[in-house]
Amino acid sequence: MRLDATFAALADPTRRAILARLASGEASVTELARPFAISQPAISKHLKVLERAGLIARSRDAQWRPCHLDPAPLKTAAEWLDHYRRFWEQSFDRLDEYLRELKKKEKADGRRKRSSK
After folding, report:
1. Can you list the pairs that 8-15 forms with residues at least 24 positions away whose Cβ atoms lie under 8 Å?
2. 103, exposed or middle or buried, with CB in 10 Å at 0-12, 13-18, 19+?
3. Which residues contact 112 (CB under 8 A, 6 or more apart)?
4. What would the pLDDT profile of 13-64 be if each residue is shown by its tens digit?
5. 65-87: per-residue pLDDT in tens?
6. Do 38 and 3 contact (CB within 8 A), yes or no?
7. What's 36's DSSP letter?
């Protein structure tokens, strides 16, 4: 499933940092590797994971092979998450309403007890 690959790729902080860098424009593997204290082969492995997940694409311009962000899988993940965000917001709204009703009932019961004494 594509969504599984997206979340698996996003699970790693190095890959998230690479995506953040690519959000500002395409970059070469060397440019992407620069801020990390890991080997070039390790960066290449991260890029392959991102590429398999469809989050990045590589092109060729003579000797330069830039990577660029493909936001479509991120949009799919955001839509999936948004569905659950709405579910939880609605659940919390119902809980808030229930608590307001309990407080009203508690106040009403307290007034009845005081007036019957």
Report:
1. 8/49, 8/53, 9/49, 9/50, 9/52, 9/53, 9/55, 10/77, 12/46, 12/49, 14/38, 14/46, 15/46, 15/49, 15/50
2. exposed
3. none
4. 999 999 999 999 999 998 999 999 998 899 999 999 999 999 999 988 777 7
5. 899 999 999 999 999 999 999 98
6. no
7. S
The first and second tokens of residue 114, run together, are: 């005081």
Residue with tokens 């229930």: 98
> Residue type for 74, please?
L
CB 47 within 8 A of CB 18: yes
Model pTM above 0.85: no
State whether the Cα torsion 32-11-2-76 is positive or negative. Answer: negative
